[in-house]
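Example S7 (structure tokens).
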């Protein structure tokens, strides 16, 4: 696999009702300042700021929500195609088919298609008004690898990143809108999730005055490739060696630990009563589950 040029945009959210052209100009400016970008990622709910730095008003979010076949996604598809890159515009407020309110991360392709959408499984209770999603999502980026999608508080549940890694993800794109002091703990979680799943972690938080910033990009062995020092707006860039996850899984973290090769196929299953399930050694590795990668 080749390397992937990433631009992670730590920026304050745009207010609901702003013309889409303002965001399009923002994305074009980032690309002009970082030519060669192949994947551009914005924070959680970047297009759905309502001016409240602590929590968002449910009524404003419900009024602004759109279905995936609505005009906003149409404009995002057009923008990604015009820029010729993979675009993660943060997440959007999605109006579900039965009127649900989902916090949904999107991935738009360089061809201008909606490549993937993921509904946040773990809304931050009791503060967020969203209905929870029920499906883990990965998306293939042909020529680069496979990305898993998560949103903010999802990173506090190790099951999410582990499931995405088991589905063959090489990197996890975790879009974030953390306005609270626990961003310090999230930085630890980003490194821990990267280490025990042997994946890249891309955690992009919104900038001040709304968010706490401190966006971070971590490699599959926990090394910090780039980190914003504070909450100021900035763009983190990194060139991700997409062959790294495969090498560390075969050679071991620090040349030692091979968690995905822990079991022999004929060993007994490890029961997991908390989930009503088990680890089956015969299908433990991502390769046993995932289809061939691009």
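Recovered sequence:
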């Amino acid at each position: 696999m080749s390397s992937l040029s990433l631009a992670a945009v730590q920026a304050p959210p745009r207010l609901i009702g702003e013309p889409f052209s303002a965001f399009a100009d923002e994305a074009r400016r980032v690309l002009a300042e970082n030519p060669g970008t192949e994947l551009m990622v914005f924070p959680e709910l970047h297009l759905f700021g309502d001016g409240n730095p602590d929590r968002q008003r449910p009524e404003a979010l419900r009024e602004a929500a759109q279905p995936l076949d609505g005009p906003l996604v149409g404009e995002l598809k057009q923008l990604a195609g015009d820029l010729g890159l993979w675009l993660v515009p943060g997440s959007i407020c999605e109006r579900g088919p039965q009127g649900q309110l989902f916090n949904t991360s999107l991935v738009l392709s360089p061809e201008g298609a909606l490549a993937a959408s993921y509904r946040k499984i773990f809304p931050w209770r009791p503060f967020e008004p969203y209905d929870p999603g029920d499906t883990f999502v990965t998306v293939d980026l042909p020529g680069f690898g496979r990305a898993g999608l998560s949103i903010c508080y999802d990173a506090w549940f190790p099951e999410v990143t582990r499931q995405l890694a088991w589905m063959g993800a090489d990197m996890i794109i975790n879009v974030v809108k953390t306005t609270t002091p626990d961003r310090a703990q999230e930085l630890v979680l980003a490194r821990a999730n990267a280490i025990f799943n042997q994946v890249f972690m891309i955690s992009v938080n919104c900038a001040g005055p709304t968010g706490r910033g401190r966006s971070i990009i971590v490699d599959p062995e926990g090394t910090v490739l780039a980190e914003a020092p504070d909450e100021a707006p900035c763009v983190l860039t990194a060139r991700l060696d997409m062959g790294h996850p495969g090498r560390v899984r075969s050679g071991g973290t620090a040349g030692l630990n091979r968690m995905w090769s822990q079991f022999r196929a004929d060993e007994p299953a490890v029961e997991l009563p908390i989930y009503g399930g088990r680890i089956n050694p015969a299908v433990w590795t991502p390769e046993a589950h995932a289809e061939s990668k691009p």
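Notes on this example. Residues 50 and 184 are 25 Å apart (CA to CA).
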